[in-house]
Specification:
428 residues; alpha/beta; Rossmann fold; 6-stranded parallel β-sheet; 5-stranded parallel β-sheet
Length: 428
């Protein structure tokens, strides 16, 4: 990990730059993939799966019998764990159900907002070296609560062409029966443009690698996306009250996601650096994915700030996907955080809790997007429609206001739409 001692503010923008940003090679490759799927549909999906994943598929839309047989391979212990996670996620997201609003803004003028489920949603579930069945829960449960009518799930195929059993079980648990074993940018293209088998989606959800993130950005003019969710990120703010073993474990928990993941350790105590570094070496040696984590650590940093104000400002500039505050009085810092996907408070709140089972959603903005958008909530699967109802008295009361504003903007037909109701055929 790179080390910085009291870096000056003018250097911060360079320090917080993500390794995957400004990658024109990825952008160009993704653009090519999107065009192929847009032009050739299902044929392109089969070809790209063979080219990229080296898997020849007979059919990428799975039959229910295949899903059922895969799901049966899940151990009873994992089933029990999923049930607990399901309960907590469901409880937290049900509490978010929006209330309709109705307000009489003035006599005879009534305004309303109602929420409706998004009808056709597409869920992208990362696979590859770490099939994220937990993401099926994080996206599938709120889609179910919101009552989305048409849900389809895309996930990369196994080398054998099948479906990972844990993903199959989680999908079955949340009631998803339409599963397509296609991954990467080509999956995003299929959901954005539609193919012979896949209907175009109204909104696409789900995290992924830099190719998936780039694909979502590029199709966002054609279809709604939840957010930009690329390589995983974690920032840990730790003082002398932290447990170095815990901090190292947290840093590695995100570093092992992929070589393009990024983690930060921010501290006001130089001694913490060595204590955490020792723990990192010990724990890294025992990890099955140590080569991946090691690569991610090369793109990561340790920073020392003496002033807590600098720590808070730097954290808000970086806007991490995940932020752990491991200090003696963690809320003193946490209460000043404005830009983060999800914040974990204190020494006993590992990021892993949010990834799996505390109840919050783990699909979060990365690459600094936490400055302007939040993670997945129930509201992400719904859209709002405003209604207004004016009585004849209400329109009369408001007519002068509307016509005065419309005429000033030189939009006479707007004014006439009011005047024909109030004065009959008396146009401007």
């Amino acid at each position: 990990m790179k080390r910085y001692i009291e870096p000056k503010p003018e250097t911060w923008d360079q320090i917080v730059k993500r390794a995957s940003q400004d990658n024109m090679v990825v952008e160009r490759r993704v653009s090519q993939i999107l065009e192929r799927v847009k032009k050739d549909g299902d044929k392109a999906l089969y070809e790209l799966t063979k080219e990229i994943d080296n898997v020849s598929l007979k059919s990428f839309l799975l039959e229910q019998s295949v899903i059922d047989s895969s799901a049966k391979q899940v151990s009873p212990q994992l089933v029990e764990a999923i049930e607990i996670a399901y309960s907590n996620i469901e409880k937290f997201h049900k509490a978010q159900f929006p209330q309709d609003i109705e307000v009489e803004t003035m006599s005879g003028v009534k305004c309303m907002i109602k929420s409706f489920p998004i009808e056709k949603v597409g869920l992208y579930i990362p696979g590859g070296t770490a099939p994220l069945f937990s993401t099926v829960l994080m996206l599938g449960i709120p889609a179910l609560i919101a009552k989305c009518k048409d849900v389809i799930m895309f996930t990369p195929p196994l080398p054998t062409g099948g479906l990972d059993p844990t993903i199959a079980y989680a999908a079955k648990r949340v009631g998803i029966s339409k599963i397509v074993t296609v991954g990467g940018a080509q999956a995003i293209a299929a959901m954005a443009y539609g193919t012979e088998v896949v209907d175009k989606r109204d909104k696409i959800f789900g995290p992924g690698n830099s190719y998936v993130a780039a694909a979502k950005q590029q199709v966002s003019s054609n279809v709604a996306i939840d957010m930009v969710a690329g390589p995983s990120e974690l920032m840990v703010i730790a003082t002398s009250e932290c447990n170095p073993t815990f901090v190292a474990a947290d840093l590695l928990s995100q570093a092992e996601h992929g070589p393009d993941s990024q983690v930060f350790l921010i501290t006001n105590n130089v001694e913490i650096i060595e204590r955490v570094s020792i723990e990192l070496e010990k724990q890294l040696a025992k990890l099955p994915r140590n080569s991946i984590a090691q690569k991610a650590l090369e793109n990561s940093s340790i920073i020392v700030f003496k002033d807590f104000a600098d720590i808070v400002n730097f954290a808000n500039i970086y806007a991490p996907e995940h932020l752990i505050v491991a200090t003696n009085n963690p809320w003193e810092i946490a209460s000043k955080i404005r830009n983060a996907g999800s914040v974990f408070i204190g020494n006993y709140s590992p990021e892993s809790a949010g990834d799996y089972a505390s109840g919050t959603n783990h699909t979060l903005p990365t690459a600094g997007w936490a400055k302007s958008t939040g993670g997945i909530t129930l509201d992400s699967f719904m859209h709002k429609v405003s209604f207004q109802e004016l009585t004849s008295e209400g329109l009369l009361n408001l007519s002068s206001t509307i016509t005065t504003m419309a005429i000033e903007e030189k939009l006479d037909a707007h004014a006439n739409a009011v005047l024909v109701r109030v004065n009959g055929d008396d146009f401007i």
